[in-house]
Amino acid sequence: MAASLFDSQLYGSLVSPGDASRLFSDSAEVRAMLLVLGAIAKAQGARDLIPAESAAAIGRAVVEVAIDPGALRKETAREGTPVPALVAALRSEMNAPEHAQFVNWGTAVQDVTDTALMLRLRQILNLLEADLKLIADLLTKKGISSSEIASLLDALPHLRASCLCVSFSGDVKAVPENVLPDIRAALAEGLALSDPKRDWHNDRTGMHRIIDWLQNCSDTLVILSDTEEEANPQLRALTLQSRALVSTVKTGPQFAELLCLPHIALSACATAYAIRKSLQPPK
Question: Which of 35, 102, 112, 248 has the fewest CB atoms within 10 Å, i.e. is most exposed?
Fold first, then answer.
């Protein structure tokens, strides 16, 4: 038995999250962090914190390099985060030390990991929004009210605007404090995320709101699955597990996010995927 059914070749089809599964892989995380490093360099280059030529070189490198997540494992275990190993690997792959020295310039490690996670959560919300709209449409065609789903969809614009935020607290030795707001705003614009206008490393309120919406999505849809067809024990079990994980994230250390958030997000996606498939007419 695999540690997670989402990764199981035997049982994975029982809880398939559809396209969302690709967003919680090591490769997806590395790619998201590279995009963040490139966006940070671009923002800093535009404000002369690093040479414009170096910012451009970094921007090219982050979309061209192929970094094996397995090669980062040893240093990740030592540092507790993959960012230092990723930065070192990117600098090495650039083969241009005059530009590579500015990778991750004046940037806190958590700025990279938090912003990269927001990029992937944005895609999760997009996938769920598409499924929820389709489910609502299918229910309407069957003459069934979908007010609960409408409420989930209505909450999304504010959730995105207030919680899908970049993180950039910076290092005041490299980035003057009066420049930090400009860099953060430019980073937000470059990645099409919101500017929180503050450091949220230790304030996980926004993350918890996203998690609450994901869990609300699971709860709403699993009730729907019980009323539409005969009860689906797999979906009900997923939702019960997800509820417990939400509590763990909110009461535990931040490392609990790494342990629990993928399951919470994929549980919502798996539930939506299953409901959509059950409502769609057979091909």
Answer: 248
Report the 10 Å Cβ neighbour count for 231.
10
Q: Cβ contacts of residue 146 below 8 Å, gap of 6+?
A: 135, 136, 139, 140
Phi then psi for 231, rounded to 5 degrees? -50, 135
Nearest to 170 by CA among 112, 232, 211: 112
User: What global pTM score does this model have?
Assistant: 0.94
- What's the rounded Cα separation, in Å, for the pair 36 and 94? 16
For residue 194, the SS3 value is strand
Q: Which of 72, 77, 91, 80 is nearest to 29 (CA)?
A: 72
- Give me the average pLDDT of each 10-residue run along the chain (283 residues): 85 89 95 98 95 97 96 96 97 95 94 98 98 94 88 98 95 82 96 96 96 96 69 86 96 95 96 90 74
Determine the Cα–Cα distance for residues 70 and 83; give it in Å rounded to an integer.
13
